Amino acid sequence: MSSATESDTEKAVAQFRENFENLRAEIGKFIVGQEQIIEDVLIAIICGGHVLLEGVPGLGKTALVNTIAQAVDLKFRRVQFTPDLLPADITGTQILVEKGGEKVFQFQEGPIFSNILLADEINRATPKTQSALLETMQEKSVTVAGKTHKLDLPFFVLATQNPIEQDGTYPLPEAQLDRFFFKLYVEVPSHDEFSRILDRTGGLESPKISPVIAGDDILKMGDLRKEVPIDKAVQDYLVKIVLATHPENENASLKIKQYVRNGSSPRGAQSILAASRVCALLDGRYHVAREDIDRMAIPALRHRLIMSFEGEAEGIRPDEVLADLINNVS
To answer: Are residues 155 and 119 in contact, defined by beta-carbon separation less than 8 angstroms?
Structure first.
């Protein structure tokens, strides 16, 4: 972090951690448990990434995104994905309006022109509609009728999907999955968490969530994490892990060779590096360590593995082969 003095850097890191903890605490006023999910979503947001939340209905995926939107002073839009949804319903379209006695085409913005877009049950929309998000998620822009419109930053997509109901759904193609920074599994809460959920939501009043951070603060936090250095040996370790997700690689574990057909793209390595830098700052360190890489590898890579027929048939989860891979890479 040579661009700032040591004192300035310490102040910036302290402010980074304070903003993060304030945001986490505000979200925790309503969301019960799910501490790891909340932390991972916030890490992705700071890195400017998109998150795919997977879990059965009723576990609070949509409530989590709504709460985050309330805790951050940003424009929020929600789109309920259905089979009859069209790309123009998301991106916007040209409409005919009258100006000065003449009829002209004018672009009417869709809900994607926001800072936080909740794509609820994203796998219920057709592939044509799903593809409307591809340019937006990668380039942060929308092209309609040959004209490109830039989105306001920060911008991120928080999408949800149900893993058990397959009727009337369209699995996301690999190209779109690759554009998600993290894929996170939302699990069933424990007994104590169930009780706290009932206590918190069953009364006359729900906890009020107030904005504790602005969009500019998130952008500054994202800029700061870019300054966190990574040693060459640690970066080589990261690269080894990502390359070892490919069955043909010399470092691939037995489970990777047996159960994985294709491994991660370079975007997986980019996601791990960005998230690991945030982890280092949250831990009060000014460098990336191997434990940061290990911590971030699974949420960044689980959706980037294409399982083989054997893996699918035996019900092998990507997390299982990734954990085994991390233990075997030195």
So the answer is: no
What's the pLDDT score for residue 304?
A: 92
Q: Is the peptide bond before 211 cis (omega within 30 degrees of 0)?
A: no
Q: State the Cα–Cα distance between residues 124 and 89, nearest whole angstrom.
A: 15
Q: What is the pLDDT of residues 274-316, one digit of tens each?
A: 999 999 999 888 899 999 999 999 999 999 999 999 888 888 8
| Strand blocks (E) in 131-177 | 141-144, 147-150, 156-161
Please give the Cα distance from 114 to 320 (Å, whole number).
36
**Domains of the chain in sequence order:** 1-84+115-227 (3.40.50.300), 228-330 (1.10.8.80)
Which amino acid, 298? I
State the pTM of this model.
Answer: 0.87
What residues form DSSP beta bridges with 149? 142
Nearest to 245 by CA among 168, 288, 305: 305
The Cα–Cα gap between 16 and 324 comes to 33
CA distance 260 to 85: 33
Element (H, E) at 262: strand 260-262
Question: Tokens in use for 45?
Answer: 């947001």
**Mean per-residue pLDDT for 228-249?**
93
- The pLDDT of 67-92, averaged and rounded, is 88
